[in-house]
Amino acid sequence: MTGTAPGLRMPDADARVLARRNDIIADLKAIVPGEGVIAHEREMRPYESDALTAYRQLPLVVVLPSTTAQVAAVLKYCHHNEIRVVPRGAGTSLSGGALPLEDAVLLGMGKFNKILEIDTPNRCAVVQPGVTNLGISKAVEHLGFYYAPDPSSQIACTIGGNVGENSGGVHCLKYGLTTNNVLGAELVLITGEIVRLGGKHLDAGGLDLLSVVIGSEGLLGVVTEVTVRLLKKPDTARAVLVGFPTSEDAGECVARIIAAGIIPAGIEMMDKDAIAAAEAFVHVGYPLDVEALLIVELDGPEAECAHLLEEVSRIAQGCNSVTLRVSTSEAERLGFWAGRKAAFPAVGRISPDYLCMDGTIPRRQLPFVLARMRELSVQYGLRVANVFHAGDGNLHPLILYDANAPGELHAAESFGADILRLCVEVGGVLTGEHGVGVEKRDLMDTMFNEVDLAQQQRMKCAFDDKSLLNPGKVFPTLHRCAEFGRMHVSGGALPFPDLPRF
Amino acid sequence: MSDIIAARDDGEVADAVRSALSAGKTLEIRGHGSKRAVGRPSQTDLTLDLSALTGVTLYEPEELVLSARAATARADIEDMLAASGQMLAFEPMDPAPLLGSPAGAGTLGGLFAVNLSGPRRISHGAVRDHALGIKAVSGRGEPFKSGGRVVKNVTGYDLPRLMAGAFGTLCIATEITLKVLPRPPMEETLVAKVASPEAAAAALSAAMGSSCEVSGAAFLPEGVAGRLPGLSGSPAVVALRLEGVAPSVTARRTMLRTVLAPFGAADVLETDASRALWLAVRDVAPFCGLGERAVWRISTEPMAGPALAARLAADLGGEAFCDWAGGLIWLCLPGESAHADAVRTALAPHGGHATLIRATAAERARTAVFQPLDAALAALTKRVKESFDPGLVLNPGRMHAGM
Question: Closest to B140 (Cβ–Cβ): which among A196, A461, A487?
Answer without folding.
Answer: A487
